[in-house]
Design goal:
With about 1300 residues, the chain is mostly beta strands. The chain contains four helices and 79 strands.
């Protein structure tokens, strides 16, 4: 309805304007009381609304409004009470009814406006006549507008449901019952705030205070802040409920705060008046709406409320009007809006459904990957405005994780993007600190903010770090906190990129998402951390936003997926789920779609393994593993990823993760392996990212350290392994391991059995006793034989007892590589030893009281080049295919062949006896020996011995090169390979001796070089004459030179003196030799401490003595080598102890070949062989000539010996072909029957006495020196009893 408006123009007389200069209206009409009745010139006719409402006059142009005069009919005068008068959005005043008064004047103080509005919020608005005095002005810039509605407001405290949005909902009703007033608690420093998202020129702030229940007094002391400036403080005036606070001219700000230092804060409306010019500037900056009719989609659709209805240009919040979108699912909902082009998004507005407003509560808005804001629903707020700051993107997302999602309109404001940097959210990465498995919830992409949704975790200590494996320019970090409770644990938390400060969280009640802008253009780094100020911190999601340029650069550095369609293998494949399906390029995680590789159940104590062969060496950056999505998702938990033998990382399962990102840190290799656990192994896609090495020589040992010339500008993580091109290999398997003690079945060999299973019950973990009392440390050690350049030690912890690894120290030789700090859910620890550590053993030590040493695998990584160099120095396998012998051979079945000795040098290292590639002797309690003839003199460096799987028949076996002892093998459960360092021993044969029963050898590799200029050492003590200070328990001295190095007392091969002072044992070598070393085998059945300090003395023929050394015994060691001084000559060796008894199981005296040859030359040649013999009597066919036939077998029933009758005096003689000078006589005694008959036998040359034989049970050969006695016959006489001679070897010279 159009009516006249009475205007008084400045400088002119009052005049009535035509209908072309105004328009009047009102919000509703009661009956016929239309708005024009208020300007018809008659005060007796009045306009009236139907209930509370507004009357307004729209002026045609901008006027400077001076005064508003209202005339009331006396009968209606009371109804003018509390009518508020506005010039535009600017509050002019409020009318207070006075009895008898019918005309009221309100001054607007020349406010520029294009509208006059009168508002009654309590009852019907009745106006009988309205006069407006104003003057026309030019331009619109001076207009003021209330910009508060539509922006999100909040209060520090809320009481009685008086939410903050009530104070900027556009409703000025100041009575509590109308539901439009905010209400704080009765505390100090209450604040109401609103974020306007942009700077505006704010002229004034108008506060409508609560007026009922005597609450007006609480307006006293309210402070109004615009930005950082306090514009004014309210002084309470009785019966006044609306206060205008003016700000300094031209003041710009983006926030307004209403602060009450004491008591309640009760605003009912806060109007923020900004200039039209600043409003237009913001509108221009924000740009037009670019979302109308854009393509849309949503997770689900309820009924006909499709996604397109939210961009149809209709803001109507009436859900039944059919202009709202609505999903059908009540969890994990999303709405997607695709913009027509790449845009710079400035602002997003969401209009809620008036009846379903809660369905936008806590919804989160994104432009692409960039968070723009979160809706915190308030009943009084119908539109939510968010500033996206010009974020570059082409897609807008709305995520609602915990309810339906319903929107009546979404408006996106922005411009087409010309340049600008798009931000991308990093996906993947792995937490390196922050709790156990729950820490992964912080990067799982679930933003619900509710503990019940398994989307949040409480971290103690209050630190979280995620490593992205690459370097990026981090522009922004978004932290999502708990929304299901009031949690201030993030207040003051510091966000860092690597170690550089990015920003700090300033917590506010009701705010759940915090955007941390990194300083300047961003911070370059590869990890993001949050450090809380308290002992714990609750985090629900962390989003890291990086520049598109740095993201693409990192992607380029990452390389291509080099695994697709490569050759693969999988143990125990299930049906059609072939191993190749994991590299078919399809990430589909639904097993039924047949794009996943799947193994069968591996069975007890076994593991599944999947492998892809990349075809050649690559520098591998990362491995991405996609699990099954519809089942068995947790079956990859604890699976381990390797590049050849180099550990890359382990998979730690957490619910909902799309893929696992494992860093291989630029390691060089060809095969990527994934080793599963005891469960099925299901892989739906494995992507390996890397590049061909940049240098042809990928293992140049001179290019192992990064230098200043290395280009690391592109990424500080370019050579994360510390080495540019280096292949590392695990050298621990196959080497001998020991540990301080064994608890239960935690044997040391479990630590290098190549099984990384971390469960104790699967019998693959070591276990010592705990550190307690006098046991100040426990340890495990692997002896590597050679001095390796040790780079890393990888330790696989026990899954079921992980905390015992805490503070474990790792040594390479004497070098401390590092100390482990236990982390929850971390099962593999990599300890870097650096570049220059060389050692032949690795030792791990636990010194923490109360802790055990119990881990499941130790891998020792060294450069392949180093291994190749050592292998080259080791030499070739000189035993392969050579002639072998063994004492006996077992035949399992007549039709299956035998375990012949040659099977141990056939090149097959299989430990499975069913493969028929192992040698084996008969089962017996007697001596077993296996030997290989190297067919030439070789310098032996290493002997590698492969035993049968799960066999202990090599326990206590001893290894020899020729006569020289190399090592004793100690078998432990699960050990089947031994590496023996022979220290460059020289010999023509290698022997393995077992004095406790069978020998079982599946392969013996003898690595060395054939030599022409070196000679072997010879054991010159064997079967020589021995004496000792006393004899106890039958431990006669000859046992120590019987050739049986058995260390078990019960095998009757050890000497034993009485427990007296100055005990000794001595062997007569019968000539002087150059002695190099003395090898002493002691008893394993006695306390070895008693042998500690045993001294070795060498005696010459002139009686002079030289000290060789003494034994320093070690637990578990039963063979000791004492080196004698160079050039030492001796004819006797004495072992002596001042304080205790002596027990010796074998003594080997090793002399140089040259000195042995010299002695042999001095003794002359054998002058008795096949000479004429006689004897006093003959038993059966045991004729005298058998003693000079060259057959040294000492068993008469098999190989005959000369034997007389056992009666009276007997003699045996040999006649030389001429007169001879006799040097030495060697008698080989019969062993199968009555060897004691040789006792008291005497030796003569002619009638010249040489020596009397003193029989010892263990002595089989007796040597007599005749010192050059001349004669033509040699006699062996016995006064009583039989003489039994299996061979008599007489050495001497002819008489010139």
């Amino acid at each position: 309805m159009k009516c006249c408006v009475f205007l008084v123009l400045l400088g002119l007389t009052q005049a009535s304007l035509g209908q072309s200069q105004y328009t009047v209206n009102q919000t509703s009409v009661r009956g016929a009381q239309e708005p024009g009745l208020a300007v018809d010139g008659e005060s007796g006719t009045c306009s009236q609304t139907l209930g509370p409402g507004a009357w307004f006059a729209e002026l045609r142009g901008v006027f400077s409004v001076k005064d508003i005069t209202i005339h009331m009919d006396p009968s209606q005068a009371r109804l003018i009470h509390q009518v508020q008068v506005y010039a535009g959005d600017v509050f002019c005043g409020e009318i207070q009814y006075e009895a008898g008064v019918t005309t009221y004047h309100v001054s607007c103080e020349d406010i520029p406006a294009n509208e006059v509005r009168l508002v009654q919020s309590q009852r019907d608005l009745v106006l009988c006549e309205v006069e407006i005095q104003a003057v026309r002005v030019l331009g619109w810039a001076g207009l003021l507008h209330n910009i508060a509605p539509g922006f999100t407001s909040w209060m520090t405290t809320i009481s009685h449901g008086g939410e903050a949005a009530r104070s900027n909902d556009g409703n000025t009703n100041s009575v509590w019952g109308a539901g439009s007033c905010s209400h704080s608690l009765n505390t100090n420093n209450n604040t109401w705030s609103v974020d306007l998202l942009d700077d505006y020129t704010i002229d004034r702030v108008v506060i409508h205070h609560r007026r009922d229940s005597n609450c007006g007094q609480y307006a006293e002391g309210i402070e109004v802040y615009v930005g950082d400036i306090m514009c004014g403080r309210i002084r309470y005036i009785a019966n006044r409920f609306v206060y205008t606070v003016k700000c300094p001219p031209g003041h710009r700000a983006s926030t307004v705060r209403v602060h009450k230092p004491m008591s309640y804060l009760l605003p009912c409306e806060v109007q923020i008046l900004a200039t039209e010019g600043s409003i237009n500037a913001v509108k221009e900056k924000n740009g037009p709406i670019i979302s109308v009719d854009a393509p849309t989609d949503q997770s689900t659709t309820y009924s006909v409320y499709r996604s397109a209805l939210a961009v149809d240009g209709n803001r109507n919040g009436n859900f039944n009007a059919g202009s709202c979108s609505h999903t059908s699912g009540n969890v994990r909902n999303w709405y997607k809006l695709r913009l027509m082009r790449r845009s710079s998004v400035r602002q997003i507005k969401v209009y809620k459904s008036l009846s379903h407003g809660a369905y936008v509560h806590q919804a989160k808005l994104y432009v692409g990957d960039v968070f723009c804001g979160q809706i915190n629903h308030q009943i009084a707020q119908n539109v939510y405005t968010f500033n996206c700051g010009g974020t570059i993107g082409d897609t807008v997302w709305v995520y609602q994780d915990a309810n339906y999602l319903a929107m009546c309109e979404i408006e996106v404001y922005g411009h087409e993007a010309h340049g600008g940097e798009k931000l991308i959210r990093l996906k993947g990465g792995f937490p390196t600190s922050g709790g156990d498995q729950d820490r992964y919830k912080i990067i799982d992409g679930v933003k619900s903010g509710r503990v019940a949704d398994k989307s949040c975790t409480n971290l103690s200590p209050a630190t979280f770090t995620v490593n992205f494996l690459e370097g990026y320019m981090v522009r922004k970090v978004v932290v999502h906190t708990r929304m299901d409770t009031v949690d201030s644990s993030t207040d003051g938390a510091i966000v860092t990129v690597d170690e550089d400060f990015c920003g700090r969280i300033e917590w506010r009640n009701g705010k759940y998402v915090y955007e941390i802008e990194c300083v300047g253009s961003g911070i370059y780094g590869g990890s993001v951390s949050i450090h809380g100020l308290g002992t714990t911190i609750y985090l629900c999601e962390l989003e890291t936003l990086v520049t598109e340029t740095s993201y693409n650069a990192a992607k380029s550095r990452l390389g291509d997926n080099i695994a697709v369609h490569r050759d693969t293998e999988l143990t125990r494949t299930t049906g059609a789920y072939d191993s190749s399906l994991a590299v078919d390029g399809d990430r589909n995680g639904i097993l039924a779609h047949q794009s996943c590789a799947q193994s069968t159940y591996p069975g007890a104590l076994l593991l599944n393994q999947w492998k892809v062969d990349l075809g050649k060496l690559y520098r591998v950056k990362q491995v991405h593993v996609y699990p099954q999505s519809d089942n068995y998702r947790n079956y990859l938990d604890r699976a381990k990823v390797y590049l050849d033998e180099q550990f890359c990382g382990e998979i730690v399962y957490w619910e909902g993760i799309p893929f696992y990102q494992i860093s291989c840190g630029n390691m060089i290799g060809r095969n990527v392996k994934i080793i599963g656990t005891e469960r099925f192994l299901v892989l739906c896609e494995v992507e390996v990212y890397g590049k061909l090495p940049e240098d042809e020589d990928t293992e140049d040992p001179t290019d192992t350290k990064p230098t200043d010339d290395d280009d690391t500008t592109e990424s500080p993580f370019k050579f994360a392994s510390g080495l540019k091109y280096e292949v590392l290999k695990n050298v621990a398997p196959g080497h001998v391991t020991t540990q301080s003690e064994v608890h239960s079945s935690g044997y040391p060999a479990n630590g290098n059995d190549n099984r990384t299973n971390g469960i104790w019950g699967h019998q693959s973990c070591i276990h010592t006793l705990n550190v307690a009392g006098a046991r100040t440390s426990v340890w495990w050690k692997v002896s590597l034989v050679f001095n390796y350049n040790i780079r890393k030690v990888v330790i696989h912890d026990r899954f079921d007892a992980p905390q015992h690894i805490h503070q474990l120290k790792v040594y390479a030789g004497d070098n401390l590589c590092g100390q482990i700090k236990y982390e929850k859910r971390k099962m593999v620890y990599v300890v870097d030893c650096g570049y220059d550590v060389h050692a032949s053993e690795v030792k791990i030590v636990q010194e923490t009281p109360g802790l055990y040493l119990t881990v499941c695998e130790i891998e020792v990584l060294v450069p392949q080049k180093n291994i190749d160099a050592i292998t080259a120095n080791m030499g070739e396998n000189v035993a392969l295919g050579k002639i072998t012998t063994q004492t006996t051979t077992q035949t399992p079945h007549a039709t299956q062949g035998s375990y012949s000795s040659d099977l141990a040098v056939d090149g097959n290292t299989s430990g499975d006896l069913n493969d028929r590639s192992c040698s084996k002797t008969f089962s017996s309690n007697y001596y077993s020996r296996w030997s290989v003839d190297l067919e030439g003199t070789a310098q032996v460096n290493v002997i590698k011995i492969y035993g049968a799987t799960n066999s202990n028949l090599l326990n206590n076996a001893k290894v020899y090169v020729g006569d020289e002892f190399c090592a004793q093998l100690f078998s432990q459960p699960k050990q089947s390979v031994w590496m023996v360092d022979c220290g460059s021993a020289v010999g023509r044969s290698v022997s393995i001796v077992q004095d406790n029963g069978q020998l079982e050898l599946c392969e013996v590799e003898v690595h060395g070089h054939y030599v022409m200029d070196k000679s072997p050492l010879i054991n010159i003590a064997l079967q020589k004459n021995t004496v000792q200070s006393s004899t106890t328990a039958g431990g006669e001295p000859a046992r120590a030179v019987d050739g049986r190095p058995n260390s078990v007392w019960g095998r009757q091969s050890c000497t034993y003196t009485s427990n007296t002072f100055n005990a000794y044992w001595m062997v007569d070598l019968l000539a002087e030799y150059e002695i190099k070393k003395v090898v002493i085998h002691i008893s394993s059945s006695h306390n070895i401490v008693h042998m500690n300090g045993l001294e070795v003395v060498a005696i010459r023929t002139d009686g002079s003595e030289s000290y060789c050394g003494q034994l320093l015994t070690e637990k578990g060691t039963y063979v000791y080598t004492v080196q004698c001084p160079d050039g030492l000559q001796a004819s006797q060796i004495r072992l002596q102890h001042e304080k205790t008894y002596i027990i010796l199981c074998e003594v080997e005296v090793l002399a140089t070949r040259e000195s042995v040859d010299k002695v042999e030359d001095s003794l002359g040649w054998i002058i008795s062989r096949d000479m004429k013999t006689k004897q006093s009597t003959t038993e059966g066919t045991a004729v005298s000539s058998y003693a000079v036939d060259g057959n040294y077998t000492q068993n008469h029933p098999i190989h005959y010996c000369a034997v007389t009758l056992n009666s009276g005096a007997n003699w045996w003689s040999v006649e030389f072909d001429e007169l001879k000078s006799v040097s030495q006589v060697k008698i080989y005694n019969r062993q199968d029957r009555y060897p004691q008959f040789l006792n008291t036998a005497t030796v003569y040359v002619g009638e010249t006495f040489c020596a009397e034989i003193v029989y010892q049970v263990a002595q089989r050969v007796y040597t007599v020196n005749c010192n050059g006695v001349v004669g033509k016959e040699l006699y062996i006489r016995k006064n009583s009893g039989a003489i039994q001679l299996c061979e008599v070897e007489v050495r001497g010279h002819s008489i010139a």
